Amino acid sequence: MSPTPQETQTMDETIRFQDPLALLHYLYNDITRLSKVVSADIVLHPFYSHSASIHGIVAVQAWEEALVAATDGTLCMAVTSISVDGEHATVDGVLRARKQGLEDLEVGFRGRWRFLEGVPVEHWENVLGDADGATVKWFKDAGWKRPDIGSVVDSMGDMGIQ
């Protein structure tokens, strides 16, 4: 989805949306756009564990780019619904990815977002129906490695995320 007339772009290249629905559609069309639309102090609660958060735009952007890179750019997050309630939003959809030598990945996701003054400040990634950790295993088998960013919580390594 291309930017709408309701958006404005500031000098630092951050895109501000008046409508959170438009922002989320824009973001899920290409998750690597994250740094263009979220707070510099964004907090991400990653899909493999919500007890280990990732703090700051640099670390969160690196996280998302590493996921896309592991799929050789095939990662697609097809949105099926978005609901906005005040400063919170929920995005449901299907995550799809391909990697040579692996079965195609197709799994439901639910993203929860918290906004402050129209800007995303917190995000919870959820993979639906994945109690056995198959999605984490798929990404590891695809060659995904935790980005080496200083602001990423150290306990990720303790949880087997390398």
Structural summary, described in words:
This is SnoaL-like domain-containing protein. The protein has 162 residues and is an alpha+beta fold. It has one domain: Nuclear Transport Factor 2, Chain: A (Roll), CATH 3.10.450.50. It is 25% helix and 31% strand. It has helices spanning 20-29, 34-37, 57-70, 134-141, 155-158; strands at residues 8-9, 15-16, 43-45, 54-55, 76-85, 88-97, 105-116, 119-127. The strands form two sheets. A six-stranded mixed β-sheet has the order 4-3-8-7-6-5, covered by helices on one side. It has a two-stranded antiparallel sheet with strand order 1-2. Strand 3 and strand 4 (54-55) form a beta hairpin. The longest helix has 14 residues, at 57-70. It starts with 7 loop residues before the first strand and ends with a helix.
- Classify the beta-strand content into a percent band: 25-35%
Please report the total strand number as a whole number.
8
**Briefly, what CATH class?**
Alpha Beta
Major sheet description: 6 strands, mixed
Terminal Cα separation, in Å? Answer: 34 Å
Q: N-to-C SSE series?
A: EEHHEEHEEEEHH
Structural class: alpha+beta
What is the mean predicted local confidence, pLDDT? 85
Task: Assign the CATH architecture.
Answer: Roll
Q: Spatial order of the strands in the main sheet?
A: 4-3-8-7-6-5
Total domains: 1
Q: Shape, please?
A: globular
Organism: Xylaria bambusicola
Protein name: SnoaL-like domain-containing protein
InterPro entries: NTF2-like_dom_sf
